Amino acid sequence: MTELPLATAHSIIYVLDMIGVFACTVAATVLAKRCNMDMFGAWIVSLIGSVGGGTLRDLLLNRHPIFWLHDLNYLYVILLVSTLVQIFYHTVERLDRAMRWFDALGLAAFTVIGVQAAVSFHMSPPIVMLMGAFTAMIGGVLRDIICQQIPLVFQKEIYTTASVLGSAYYLLLLHWGVSEWLNSLSTLVLIFSIRMLAVYRGWNLPNLTLPKKP
Amino acid sequence: MTELPLATAHSIIYVLDMIGVFACTVAATVLAKRCNMDMFGAWIVSLIGSVGGGTLRDLLLNRHPIFWLHDLNYLYVILLVSTLVQIFYHTVERLDRAMRWFDALGLAAFTVIGVQAAVSFHMSPPIVMLMGAFTAMIGGVLRDIICQQIPLVFQKEIYTTASVLGSAYYLLLLHWGVSEWLNSLSTLVLIFSIRMLAVYRGWNLPNLTLPKKP
Amino acid sequence: MTELPLATAHSIIYVLDMIGVFACTVAATVLAKRCNMDMFGAWIVSLIGSVGGGTLRDLLLNRHPIFWLHDLNYLYVILLVSTLVQIFYHTVERLDRAMRWFDALGLAAFTVIGVQAAVSFHMSPPIVMLMGAFTAMIGGVLRDIICQQIPLVFQKEIYTTASVLGSAYYLLLLHWGVSEWLNSLSTLVLIFSIRMLAVYRGWNLPNLTLPKKP
């Protein structure tokens, strides 16, 4: 099997990371407009919604500098995309369906990046899976809290589940010594697939609660 | 007076800490179910509600690694208890009264742990008291915010007050050179007693506001 | 031109910083009373509203110790002012207009302090401007979230804008080699002026959104 250079795998993850930032920014800006926020409000909520999860992960792991403080591409993508979404708001609002594809790409990329960061800090498997999930979902949670909504990801759909299953798969392949590029990319595909299947099949988590006794 | 080994005092505090985590997890899971959260949502809210206060304390003090990243017992207790509460939700919902005892034990344990952490980082007395209170109450505040409630601890009952009085007592005994095990355990008893008395006597803080002039 | 000692400029900024803390505490306490919080609740919300922005900035920059852990004046001013506002609540409630002057002074001081902190950590210009804005506004955002309000600063008025314009001006003068005391003080005046003009002229940001097609 020919070795794909690790650098190429990293480039692919970086591009998908930016797609995730793009998706988070669109979602955050649409929500901000619905809450009657102004230009700066939409920018800040987009920033929090896009990099909030990774920031919490870096703070918890004591991983400095925080990634977006030194790589300004995050900030530029967020400002540009949020501004465009504000201008073409009435058009973007109707693209809800298309956004789910980008959102699922972001979920996959954010999880892999979070998992890699936690692994490089020698965290135990349960914490690695948690850091992957945090990276992928805390931004959306903060965004929903600011806009006075009970966080969407806590209420329905296989979202965190896809992230956690992907992290477990990544750790398993890492344990088996599979090369990193293959591991990262197949994890990306797995998370994306689970998420999109869940969306189109309407999968939900089972409710654990026993029925009330009569 | 026979010296109780410090290790024993630490074990007692650790057990009470887990009881606090247990109480926080039950409260958070019940609230999460009321907000129609799914399994993962309830787990994450339980995690935030249980270790959120200690995490903020550790971040502020720059005390790494964050305690629950390396001691996985916290995560395991939270996942186990939250899952059980979700299954037996209709039964647990009726045990509100019993929970107050566990909750008060948690308040006491969390405060003592927060105070000890701040003292070991050479903080001044006002900051030590604040760190004790933060450890005990910020988790509940974050939990309430996520579930769209004005934080309960800010609105009524002698809760933070019990924590702060206990911290002041701890610092006084520390200043007088009382041995740590006796100091810790008597502080635990004091906070627990104040809290339970407040619950059963319906104590509230006085309202400072002067009446409106006619 | 006679050199104003840098120490004097720092003293002026420190005094204005405390005025900002004063303004934030008054605003937070009034909001806390409206949410039926008790004494401790009002104190904690005042603390979060006053130093929350600077704390997030310090955590992001990994700048320890967090400023208010070692300079207890912040805590004392907050406790004192919040207690007084609680006592004289019905009088303070009517002073809404006067508060805007203090609030604008705080906005200016918080921004300059945040900008100086980020510059001393060698951050790039966009991050410096963001840190100035975060320092000035995140406290108010957290306060509004706790009290179940969509953050005011995200919704209207030239608030963050004044902060960002001031930061850009500061960076420009820094680049030109203007001495720090002159730079800091003129930035303070600029931010304060923009904010007060915005308040009295009713300036708002333009809405970027294109009109809906018929």
TrEMBL record, chains A, B, C:
Q: Where is it located?
A: Cell membrane
Instruction: Give me the Gene Ontology terms describing cellular component.
Output: plasma membrane
Q: From the record, give the transmembrane residue ranges.
A: 12-32, 39-60, 72-89, 101-121, 127-146, 158-178, 184-203
Main localization of the protein described in the UniProt heading: membrane
Domain of life assignment: Bacteria
Question: Which keywords describe this protein according to UniProt?
Answer: Cell membrane, Membrane, Transmembrane, Transmembrane helix
- Ranges of residues in domain Glycine transporter: 15-89, 101-173
Pfam families found in the cross-reference section: Gly_transporter
Q: How does it sit in the membrane?
A: Multi-pass membrane protein
InterPro entries, sorted: Gly_transporter
- Family statement drawn from the similarity comment of this UniProt entry: Belongs to the UPF0126 family.
Can you name this protein?
Answer: Uncharacterized membrane protein YeiH
